[in-house]
Amino acid sequence: MKTKKSKSAIIRIVIQIFFFLLVFMVSISKWLAEKGIKLPFLPEVSLHAICPFGGIETLYGFAATGSFIQKIHNSSFILMIIGILVALLFGAIFCGYICPFGTFQEWIGKLGKKLLGKRYNSLIPKKLDSILRYLRYVVLALVVYQTAITSKLLFQNMDPYYALFNFFTNEVALSAYIVLGVIAVLSLFIERPWCKYFCPYGAFLGLFNLFRVFKIRRNKNTCISCGKCDRVCPMNIEVSKKEAVRSHQCISCHKCTSEVSCPIKDTVVISTNKLSEEKEGVKVEA
Amino acid sequence: MKLKPQIAVFISIGIAVIGIALSMVLGLWTTESAKVPRRLSQSQTTVQSAAQGQGSGENQNQVQYDPMDIRGSYKFSEIGGLFKIPVSDLASAFNVKENAENFAVKDLEKIYAGASNEIGTGSVRLFVALYVKVPVDLTADTYLPETAVQILKAKGTLSSEEAAYVEKHTVKLP
Ligand code: SF4
Ligand code: SF4
Prior knowledge:
The complex is a heterodimer of chains A (286) and B (174). Chain A is mainly alpha-helical and 286 residues long. Chain A folds into 2 domains: 7-208, no CATH class; 214-286. Chain A has 13 helices and 2 strands; from the N terminus they run ααααααααααααβαβ. Chain A has a two-stranded antiparallel sheet. In chain A, helix 1 crosses helix 6 and helix 8 crosses helix 12. Chain A is globular and about 60 Å long. With 174 residues, chain B is mainly α. Chain B has a two-stranded parallel sheet with strand order 2-3. The radius of gyration of chain B is 22 Å and the shape is elongated. Chain B has 2 domains: 1-31; 42-171, no CATH class. Strand 2 (268-271) of chain A pairs antiparallel with strand 1 of chain B, so a sheet runs across the interface. One iron/sulfur cluster binds at residues 216, 232-235, 237, 239, 245, 250-256 of chain A. The site of one iron/sulfur cluster has 15 residues of chain A, from loops.
């Protein structure tokens, strides 16, 4: 069984830290630029300009009037298109590796795991949890609708990601700070509560899991049903009961894969093809 | 075809880097708005021309922008250029004493932080719309400083409804 972190897991941590710091530095650079201080090598762009969700929020306005809604720029639109291309291939990999708010929740969750042990991330009754998982589609519909009728970025007033990376400015609404606080506390009990129940961009990207080209696939012939993939999945997906993960909740963190957690080589993999026909020798990794 | 997780994520980051680089080369990557408001619809332009008492010839070639699309990041000089309003009128209307050319609309909130009613981007939109005679929604509550109201009245182009509206929506300055 694996004891130390795999290469894939380490690469993921490095990428998460990189994007977390990058977004933080971009936000600081913009704030300082407004005060007349320029930081070398960092662009003076607002967080909206580097957020792919802005592209989705402005879609209706763009189709109707040919212009973007307030605070949204070409760059958001381009990032949205890139996000769609990547999601078509690999699903919500943005959530699993890049989104700094996902990373923030994950880091708080590490403390929660220490405090709660096995009870962490399993406190909400399954039935209620399975219903709540669709709440983020309600949020997505509301955000798109509200933005379409007002042409304003109203979601900013509730957006904990914006509050986290702008806490030092005077641009954050009290409601966004409250949402951030609630999510931070919830993250001590539930892994990625914002991603699971509320995030409209995660909801959008999650839809691509239904038809993405490279799926997370389990080879049932080599699987020993140890359930490790289920236990490590932050989104509580029962990978051990599936041949291909099509859940809209999968964030493509790859924790369940044989490269990271599954103890049997080539059993949970990222693949375009069905694995059930493959019969490979069972080999437990050292 | 199988991929290792790190290959999948490097391909994803690669697509992002290439996509951004390509859009930069094509001149599509902008992280700021071009600061061009949307244009008025045909019907709004017709109403505006009628209100200005213009025939079909004059002003037809001038692009008509929608004052309601003015953003908080717009500077007075940009608004002046887009809507053909002297920056001095904007500065006097909103009591901007220094560096009016570079004054950004969103900074009005600082000047009027203690005002009895909000004076902000909406106020500039209303002022510009009334100044250039674009029809405005008189059911919403948007306020103007009394200096802005004086300038509009002095122009003498307000309709009776508009005059009554601004009268009711004037914020007296200390
Ligand atoms: S679901 Fe939302 S908050 Fe979570 S990782 Fe994805 S984009 Fe980020
Ligand atoms: S199914 Fe695997 S890749 Fe998807 S969220 Fe769970 S652990 Fe991550």
